[in-house]
Amino acid sequence: MIEYEISKKTCNTHQMVCEIATAVKARSILEIGVASGGLSKNLMSLPEVEFYVGLDPFRDPADAIKYNQVANVQHAISTFKTPNLCHRLLIQGTIHLLRAAHFDFIYIDGDHSIGGIYTDFNFVKRDMSCRLLGGHDFKNGTGVKPFISETVQGDDLVVIVDHSSNHWLDVSGLDDESKTRLHEVLTALSGEDHV
Ligand SMILES: C[S@@+](CC[C@H](N)C(=O)[O-])C[C@H]1O[C@@H](n2cnc3c(N)ncnc32)[C@H](O)[C@@H]1O
C-alpha cells in the first residue's frame, strides 16, 4: 500500500477526487453514491470530462434520509454547465445498462458496509472495464478498509488522506504513464514524499 497525506492547505475532499480524475485524464466517469450531487457537480465541471454517470438507488430524497443524505441530484443538476451529461439511474431496473461499459474512472461512495463494497467492487471488476477504480471512506471504520486491503494488493493500493476525509484507489488498470502522473500529482499535493 502506498499512502499520501495531503497537506492541509492543498484541497478539500471534492477537489481531491477531481485532482485524481485530472491526473489520469479521465473523460468518462461513473460515481456510485451521488447523494445531493456535490461531487458530481465538481466532476462534471472538469474540462476533460465528456461523460458522467451518477448512480444512486434512491429516486425519492425521503428514502435517502436513513443515510442522512439528501439524494436530490436534480437541484445540483440545475447548476451544471452541461446538464445533459448527467444520467441518474436507479439500481433496480437500469443497472444492466452499464454492463460492459467502459469508464476511465469509477468512484464508489455508496453502501460502505462490507457487503456493499464487496458487491460494488465485484460488479465493476466483473461487468465493466475501467482504468482507475477508487472510492471514499477507507479509514472510517466501515467495511471498506477490511475488504479493499484484503483485495487490492501491494502498490496497486493507493490511499489518500486529505484534511477531512480519505480515499482508496486500485491503480492496477492504469498504464505506466498515468500511474506516474498520478503519483507525481499526489506527491506534489502532499508537499512531502509519500510514506
Ligand atoms: C456519502 S453519500 C455520497 C456522497 C457523494 N459521493 C458526494 O461526495 O457528494 C452516499 C450515497 O450513497 C447512496 N447509496 C446507498 N447505498 C447505495 C448503493 N448500494 N449503491 C449506490 N448508492 C448507494 C445513498 O443514497 C447516498 O446518497
Write a structural description.
This protein has 195 residues and is of the alpha/beta class. The protein has a single domain, classed as 3-Layer(aba) Sandwich (Rossmann fold), CATH 3.40.50. Helix content is 33%, strand content 21%. The protein contains seven helices and eight strands; from the N terminus they run E-H-E-H-E-H-E-H-E-H-E-H-E-E-H. It has an eight-stranded mixed sheet with strand order 1-7-8-6-5-2-3-4, sandwiched between helices. Strand 7 (157-161) and strand 8 form a beta hairpin. The termini are close together. The model is unreliable at 64-93 (pLDDT under 50). The structure holds S-adenosylmethionine (SAM). Residues 31-35, 38-39, 55-58, 64, 67, 69, 71, 91, 109-111, 116 line the site of S-adenosylmethionine.
